[in-house]
Amino acid sequence: MRFIISFAYICITMSLNKEAYIRYKTIDECLNDKFSLYPTIYDLIEACEKKLGKNFSISSIQKDIKAMKEDEALGFNAPIKFSRQYNGYYYSDPDFSINSIPLNSSELEALEAVSDVLTAFTGSRISEYYNQAVQKITASIKEKTLHKGKNRKFIQTDAQVRHKGFEYFELLLHAVMEKIPVCFIHYSYNKRCFNSVIAHPVLLKEFQNKWYLVAYSEQHKCLRTFGLDRISDPLMLKKEFHDTSDEIIDNYFSDIYGVYPLPKAVKQKITFLAGPFIAEYIKANPIHTSQTIQKTGEHGGVFFELELIPSQELINFFVQFGPDLVVLSPELVHNKVLETVKKSLLNCTFHANIESFI
User: Does a cis peptide bond (omega within 30 degrees of 0) precede residue 330?
Assistant: First the structure.
């Protein structure tokens, strides 16, 4: 049985370089082009350069062809032949494609083990096109393993709740991929008001099971983050797109935990002391790549340091550990944590709770 979804093979071949795979796909497409038979080595080079936007040598593409034919780790076993008569390449099996490679038993078992994870990503979190791809993979797995009688799940994931605004995910994803400006109504929970926004989308980001649109805002003249739950009635616009460099996009989130920086906050050193139990958890699950250990106390407490832009999500992270974690510096973060804790304590009293929520 052959699987027609190349995504399945990508999941298995984790060592496969993304750029190399694009070249293999491009070569495969050229060899399957019925309107342009026997592509030459120069045709293949041109197609790869057009796809990836960079130059390739003859030897590089020849190595790719050799890998597609002989590399056991890839498993393509592509029947690529060279025609001296036409001075070009072709598949000796006209029905062959690397998109239809068979899976062996070990690969099938690997997919079977993660099929519950794939299934968890259907429905509420991705578009119908992705749902169909995952469903085809899982259906094929079930068909192949039905005789084994394995009905018990080995992996259980969190159920995904369909959040408000997710119905616009596919439209916004298309706008990001095709670089199309959009306008939408944005609601501010803090100010309790609506604003019209013209944005130039660059990224869809998930954080703690919620989705956010990162876009250049014409109003703010910089990148901003918009929760999908606050977006209404998005429309794509026919106007020039304000492009943002990859470097700026990468830097936008590389120095922050979460998505919403505190107002006027800048990147700075943040130090905190965690009790023995919490310290072990934070060591095993670092908050950020900048996290370092400054000192360990004689009773097991650990002094940590981060270099980040303070964010509301970071404040919430600190608050959840209560008395087992103390923020030492800077004063801005220390006071923000203290303020949040005081509000929580105030709302614990019955009368204050009632009055503040009515």
Answer: yes
- 335 found inside a domain: yes
Same domain for 78 and 34:
yes
- Please classify residue 110 by burial: count the beta carbons closer than 10 Å to its beta carbon, then call 0-12 exposed, 13-18 middle and 19+ buried: middle
Record the tokens describing residue 21, joined without a space. Answer: 């795979």
Decide the pairing of beta strands 210-217 and 182-188: unpaired
Residue 305 burial (10 A CB sphere; 0-12, 13-18, 19+): middle
pLDDT single digits (tens) 244-296: 888 888 877 788 888 888 888 889 999 999 998 899 899 988 999 899 999 99
Q: Looking at the predicted structure, is the pLDDT value of residue 116 above 70? A: no
CATH number reported for the structural domain that contains residue 248 in this entry: 2.30.30
Parallel, antiparallel, or unpaired: how do β-strands 231-236 and 182-188 relate? Answer: antiparallel
Is residue 130 pLDDT above 80, yes or no? no
| CATH number of the domain encompassing residue 77 | 1.10.10.10
Instruction: Please identify, among 78, 100, 122, the residue that sits at the C-terminal boundary of a domain.
Output: 100
Domains in the chain: how many in total? 4
Q: What is the pTM of this model?
A: 0.54
Query: Helices in the chain by DSSP H: which ranges?
Result: 6-12, 18-31, 41-52, 58-70, 105-120, 128-145, 169-178, 246-254, 276-284, 312-319, 331-346, 350-357
**Rounded Cα distance, 134 and 303, in Å:** 45
CA-CA distances (angstroms) from residue 77 to 4, 72, 92? 16, 8, 12
